[in-house]
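Customer escalation, tier 2.

The customer says the design service returned an amino acid string that "doesn't look like it belongs to this structure." They asked us to rerun it and document both sides in this ticket. The original C-alpha cells are below, unchanged.
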C-alpha cells in the first residue's frame, strides 16, 4: 500500500485518521440491529422484502476483518473513526476497540460515528474505552427521515434514538458534527445546538419531540460543538476554546444565545469569523 498521508500534511490538514464503514443506514434497512426490523412495509402481502425473516440487517465487516483494519491503522500511528448507526454494529465497534486497547493502550483515538442506536448495556463502554460519540448528522428531531426509520425499526428503538443524554451522563465525550455535504445541505450548527436541547423541529410542519429525555442543556450542546469537537480531533491544545497560547479561532454573533429563548437559537447569524487571529469573513450589511 502506497501511503500518501505524509505528503498531504500541512499546518491545517492532518491526515491522522482512517474511517471504517461498518453498516449502512436504518432507512434502507442496511444497518445491523440486535433486534429484528419490522416486516417490510413496502413488500407485497406475504413477502419478506427479499430477506429471511426475522431480518436484523447485515454488517460490512466480519469481526476479524475489522480487527485487521484497526491493526493496519494503529500500527502506522493512525487513529480510527467507525461508522456504526445501529446497536449491533456499535457493539461490534466497541468489542474491536477493547481488543485494540489491550494491544496499544490509551494512545489511539477512536470515534463511533452516527451512533443513533446504542444498546443500554453498551452506553457505559464508550467512556470505559475512551470512545468518542460522533453526533452527526442533525437527526435528533422529528423530520421525514426519522418517520421512515420509525417504519423500519422496533418501536422501542425510537424511544432512545440518539441517546446523547445517556452517553453524556456516563462520561462519554460527545462531539458534534454536520456530516455535510452527505446529510445536510448547509452545515448549520445553530439548528444542531438548538435541537440537542429541545429535541423538537423549528418547523411546525413536524410537530412533537423525539426521545425528549435524551435532551442536553445548552451549555453541554455548545461544548459538543466546540471544545469537545477539538478534543475529538486531537486538537484540544490548539483550538476549541479561547485561552492564552491557543489559536484565536472564534466567531462574533448577532445575539447571546444564552439570553434568548432556546427555540430562537436556530436563527443565530454570524457577523464575523476569525481564524488564527485573522478576520476571514464578515457578513454582508443588511
Amino acid at each position: 500500500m502506497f501511503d500518501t498521508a505524509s505528503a498531504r500534511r500541512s499546518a491545517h490538514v492532518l491526515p491522522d485518521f482512517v474511517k471504517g464503514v461498518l453498516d449502512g443506514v436504518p432507512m434502507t434497512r442496511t444497518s445491523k440491529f440486535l433486534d429484528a426490523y419490522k416486516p417490510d412495509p413496502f413488500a407485497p402481502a406475504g413477502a419478506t422484502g427479499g430477506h429471511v425473516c426475522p431480518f436484523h440487517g447485515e454488517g460490512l465487516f466480519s469481526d476479524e476483518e475489522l480487527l485487521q483494519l484497526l491493526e493496519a491503522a494503529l500500527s502506522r500511528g493512525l487513529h480510527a473513526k467507525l461508522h456504526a448507526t445501529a446497536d449491533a454494529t456499535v457493539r461490534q465497534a466497541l468489542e474491536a476497540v477493547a481488543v485494540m486497547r489491550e494491544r496499544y493502550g490509551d494512545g489511539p483515538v477512536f470515534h463511533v460515528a452516527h451512533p443513533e442506536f446504542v444498546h443500554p448495556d453498551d452506553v457505559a463502554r464508550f467512556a470505559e474505552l475512551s470512545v468518542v460519540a460522533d453526533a452527526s448528522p442533525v437527526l435528533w428531531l422529528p423530520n421525514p427521515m426519522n418517520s421512515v426509520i420509525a417504519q423500519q425499526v422496533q418501536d422501542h428503538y425510537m424511544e432512545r434514538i440518539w441517546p446523547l443524554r445517556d452517553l453524556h451522563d456516563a462520561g462519554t465525550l460527545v462531539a458534534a458534527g454536520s456530516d455535510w455535504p452527505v446529510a445536510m445541505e448547509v452545515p448549520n450548527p445553530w439548528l444542531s445546538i438548538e435541537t440537542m436541547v429541545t429535541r423538537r423541529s423549528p418547523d411546525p410542519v413536524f410537530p412533537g419531540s423525539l426521545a425528549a429525555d435524551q435532551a442536553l442543556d445548552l451549555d453541554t450542546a455548545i461544548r459538543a460543538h466546540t471544545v469537545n469537537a477539538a478534543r475529538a480531533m486531537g486538537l484540544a491544545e490548539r483550538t476549541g476554546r479561547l485561552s492564552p497560547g491557543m489559536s484565536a479561532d472564534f466567531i462574533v454573533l448577532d445575539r447571546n444565545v444564552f439570553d434568548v429563548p432556546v427555540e430562537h437559537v436556530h436563527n443565530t447569524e454570524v457577523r464575523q469569523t476569525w481564524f488564527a487571529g485573522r478576520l476571514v469573513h464578515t457578513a454582508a450589511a443588511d
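Tier 2 assessment: The sequence is consistent with the input. The mean pLDDT is 94. The beta strands are 17-21, 79-83, 110-113, 131-135, 174-176, 250-253, 270-275, 278-282. Sent an explanation to the customer and offered a walkthrough call.
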